[in-house]
Specification:
Blueprint: H1 3-22, E1 31-39, H2 41-45, E2 51-58, E3 65-69, E4 83-85, E5 91-94, E6 100-101, H3 115-124, E7 127-130, E8 133-136, E9 141-142, E10 147-151, E11 156-160, E12 167-168, E13 177-183, E14 186-189, E15 198-203, E16 207-213, E17 216-218, E18 227-232, E19 239-245, E20 248-250, E21 254-259, E22 269-275, E23 278-289, E24 292-298, E25 301-322, E26 325-338, E27 351-353, E28 356-357, E29 362-369, E30 374-376, E31 379-382, E32 386-389, E33 396-398, E34 401-404, E35 410-413, E36 419-421, E37 424-426, E38 435-440, E39 447-450, E40 453-455, E41 461-466, E42 471-474
Length: 485
């Protein structure tokens, strides 16, 4: 071998030997022993021993619990609630069953803003409970799938003085929102923020299995006209199996708005149930709007909504409105509109049964586009009238009590083929009665009025057909039971 090459090789070998000798040896890994140590969160975080326990008992008041070392986890962040990280990077995980307490994560009534800590909790674990108390939230919390947030109903109040939105979906609308439950939370909105939002505001993702129940909310002190719950179905997205039940809500704009306006002629929202709620002192109590199917609105108390109490608007199918009570002042306490082509192979239209007013309601009922509705056993005492218009055709109206202060109790306005049977229809309280029942316009043909009690106001007629309308009336009788010719 060339002496020069040999010399260079020897120098390189010598350098490697020196480098290896100078490089410090890797520290021996910490030893894990099978024992349970007792310490505070601060003590665990600063744990720097070479021999560490596989379990620790945390003693901090309200955050007590047993944590187990997870040697396989090298990345989880310290969130204080369910994961604690030592100064040397060892991760201990809380042992628990059931709901995680948000107090573990630092959410406390004394916080100026629970938003960041609540966000940490929502990110960290699937099921959370908020302890009793009054809280302040300034920043919104982004929710995710497989999330439950609970509180004892009436025992937790979250005040929103800065943002109107307490919970909102993830920023990325491609992330679906599935299996989410809000249960027992209360909000007091005092924000001066402008815009139309919602305390629960979902706009963007595909949503399925969302339930909001046993909650209360008021925005009487807020600046703007806003919602309590908003669910908007964006183009190309869907919303299925949505339940809103047993909530008590006042909202300046709408208590609950679920709408599909961006999927033209696509029934992107289905199986939506709104039941057992008290919606009051809003512009709209409830609005379900756009191509939606499988709607159940049952046993709600709707009170003092300046525009509509319950609004079903724009191409809804398979709509059932049952056992709701309306009280106070409205423009229309029930506004019903479906696709006009029927909404099911059995009944062919909206099903509106067993609903009633509490005392005398200001306002009336308008079925703008109710298809071949089944309208039965409703008991409405109101200042306005029952108005059928547009494609509310071919319906059956039976066994209802309609008492109106209007100059007409019922009008079929260019709507054909509706049958009224075994109803009590009255506008006795009106001093300038036109007619108790009116078929109006050239499209209002083949309507049938049979075996009804018709109680008319002063003057006018018990029924009439005008401006091209037609009406077949038989076996009707007046307040005293006398036949009406």
């Amino acid at each position: 071998m060339n002496p020069f090459v040999l010399l260079r090789f020897g120098a390189l070998l010598l350098a490697l030997v020196v480098f290896a000798h100078c490089k410090p040896t890797d520290p021996a890994p910490d030893s894990v022993v099978h024992r349970v140590d007792t310490m505070s969160i601060a003590q665990l975080r600063t744990l720097n021993a070479s021999v560490i326990p596989d379990k620790v008992l945390i003693t901090d008041a309200g955050r007590e619990g047993e944590f187990t070392l997870d040697e396989a986890d090298l990345t989880s962040m310290d969130n204080m609630g369910v994961t604690l990280v030592t100064v040397k990077g060892h991760r201990y995980k809380r042992n628990f069953t059931g709901s995680a307490n948000v107090f573990w994560f630092g959410v406390e009534p004394s916080d100026a803003d629970i938003g960041p800590e609540l966000q940490t909790a929502v990110t960290a674990t699937n099921e959370l409970i908020i302890p009793d108390g009054n809280y302040t939230q300034l920043t919104s919390v982004r929710i995710r799938s497989n999330l439950t947030v609970r509180a004892n109903p009436g025992k937790v109040l979250i005040t929103l003085p800065q943002t109107y939105v307490s919970f909102v979906n993830a920023e990325d609308p491609s992330l679906p929102l599935q299996h989410v439950l809000f249960d027992g939370l209360s909000w007091n909105v005092t924000s001066r923020q402008t815009g139309v939002y919602g305390v629960i505001y979902i706009d963007g993702p595909t949503v399925s299995d969302l339930t909001v129940q046993n909650c209360t909310s008021s925005d009487a002190a807020a600046k703007d006209s806003t919602n309590w719950m908003t669910l908007k179905i964006q183009a190309g997205k869907t919303a299925t199996d949505i339940v809103v039940r047993n909530n008590n809500v006042q909202a300046k704009r709408m208590a609950c708005e679920i709408f599909n306006h961006d999927n033209y002629n696509i029934y992107a929202g289905k199986n939506i149930t709104v039941s057992d709620n008290n919606f009051h002192d809003c512009h709209f109590g409830l609005s379900l709007s756009g191509p939606l199917t499988g709607l159940m609105v049952d046993n709600n108390l709707i009170k003092n909504c300046s525009l509509f109490g319950i609004e079903i608007a724009g191409a809804a199918r398979n709509v059932t409105i049952t056992n709701n009570k309306f009280e106070g002042v409205f423009d229309k306490f029930l506004e019903g509109s479906n696709d006009g082509n029927g909404n099911g192979t059995v009944v062919g239209g909206m099903v509106i049964t067993g609903n009633s007013t509490v005392g005398l309601c200001t306002g009336g009922v308008q079925l703008y586009n109710a298809g071949a509705a089944t309208f039965s056993k409703n008991d409405f005492h109101m200042s306005g009238m029952l108005e059928l218009t547009h494609s509310s055709a071919g319906g059956m109206y039976t066994e209802n009590t309609i008492e109106s202060l209007s100059n007409k109790a019922v009008i079929c306005d260019n709507t054909p083929n509706n049958t009224f049977s075994r109803n009590t229809l009255s506008n006795k309280g009106n001093s300038e009665n036109q007619a108790t029942f009116v078929a109006y316009g050239s499209k209002s043909i083949n309507n049938t009025l049979t075996n009804n009690k018709l109680i008319k106001g002063n003057g006018g007629k018990p029924y009439e057909a005008v401006l091209g309308g037609s009406l077949a009336a038989s076996m009707n009788y007046d307040e005293s039971g006398a036949p009406i010719p």
